[in-house]
Task: inverse folding
């Protein structure tokens, strides 16, 4: 056996797990998003809890000790708040605790359907109406968990297309000592729309609002120009790559080496949870760079393990310290010197909480029921 630090999964949408193996046909990112929105429209706190508990349980079995949950489905149908306006967030926290995983709940402000467009359809469930109303709700949630060691309440800007420019700073300042995450330039259309509406790239627009600091994480950063890379790197911000999702959604390959060389700090996430395997996410950063550059060895195993563990914990506001045991007695690991290049989640035999796999078989059965319930409502 080998001992390694437990993984940090820095970007997750737990409910997307219900899309796995079901939304697989041809089309663009935007067509996939329509299916994801249809799923989001079915959720209530009970279904959110069931999906998240099983998804987090799968993460624990894969050696993940902490998850950053990018959470934006806040309210009921037509945007009506639940009796507890944080009921959905509480469901995610309860699910993490039952699965035995620490959680940074990245409560996400999502107010628009695009530049100058009001929320449409299911997006009404995401919106608090204004950044000020969002901040009041998230500060109430943060107060509930002040001082606990297994929950961090962080803030997130969904994207520049989902939040008016004059409200970006409100979100950035709402929780001044907490992690701040934001989707950035995942698709070319986002850049084009931002340029047309503001004359700036998403990164530059966020810079004007004071978003880029050492506590900020830019998620995806797939389509950046050289000025964008310099801005994020100069701030020593984190960048979270989610390679399995970025390939599954046809996002593209982000400039990981250029960002690192500019001063940004790499972390990793499973995003849509089509795959939950941090070995695969870490390897894919290097393998994608090889495909893009034609050169091998831009990232060492040590750098990638650090991104998947210690740096990830830091970006979510947690101290590291959890450990996992990795079996060397498998056909995958035979003769291997550097485990990162060969291991999979299946080789984790002792996860941070020593979670028994048979318990998660039961959770898998409940997950199947929850997924069927979701799609039965679509």
Result:
């Amino acid at each position: 056996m080998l001992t390694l630090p437990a993984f940090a999964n820095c970007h997750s949408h737990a409910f997307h797990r219900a899309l796995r193996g079901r939304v697989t046909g041809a089309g663009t990112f935007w067509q996939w998003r329509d299916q994801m929105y249809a799923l989001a429209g079915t959720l209530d706190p009970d279904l959110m809890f069931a999906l998240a508990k099983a998804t987090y349980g799968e993460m624990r079995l894969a050696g993940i000790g902490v998850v950053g949950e990018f959470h934006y489905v806040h309210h009921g149908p037509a945007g009506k708040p639940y009796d507890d306006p944080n009921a959905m967030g509480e469901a995610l926290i309860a699910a993490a605790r039952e699965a035995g995983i620490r959680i940074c709940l990245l409560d996400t402000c999502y107010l628009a359907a695009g530049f100058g467009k009001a929320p449409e359809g299911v997006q009404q469930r995401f919106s608090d109406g204004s950044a000020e109303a969002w901040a009041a709700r998230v500060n109430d949630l943060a107060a509930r968990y002040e001082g606990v060691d297994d929950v961090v309440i962080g803030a997130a800007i969904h994207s520049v297309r989902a939040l008016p420019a004059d409200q970006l700073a409100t979100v950035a300042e709402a929780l001044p000592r907490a992690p701040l995450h934001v989707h950035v330039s995942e698709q070319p259309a986002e850049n084009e729309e931002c340029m047309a509406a503001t004359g700036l790239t998403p990164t530059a627009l966020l810079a004007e609002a004071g978003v880029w600091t050492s506590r900020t994480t830019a998620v995806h950063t797939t389509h950046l120009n050289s000025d964008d890379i310099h801005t994020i790197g100069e701030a020593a911000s984190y960048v979270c790559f989610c390679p399995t999702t970025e390939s599954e959604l046809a996002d593209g390959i982000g400039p990981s080496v250029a960002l690192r060389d500019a001063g940004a700090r790499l972390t990793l996430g499973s995003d849509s949870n089509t795959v939950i395997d941090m070995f695969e996410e870490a390897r894919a950063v290097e393998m994608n760079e090889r495909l893009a550059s034609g050169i091998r060895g831009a990232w060492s195993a040590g750098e990638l393990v650090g991104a998947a563990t210690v740096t990830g914990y830091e970006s979510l506001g947690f101290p590291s310290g959890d450990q996992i045991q990795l079996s060397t007695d498998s056909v995958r690991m035979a003769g291997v010197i550097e485990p990162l290049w060969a291991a999979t989640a299946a080789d984790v035999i002792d996860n941070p909480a020593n979670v028994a796999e048979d318990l998660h078989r039961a959770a898998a059965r409940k997950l199947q029921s929850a997924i069927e319930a979701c799609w039965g409502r679509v």
Summary: The chain has one domain: 2-377.
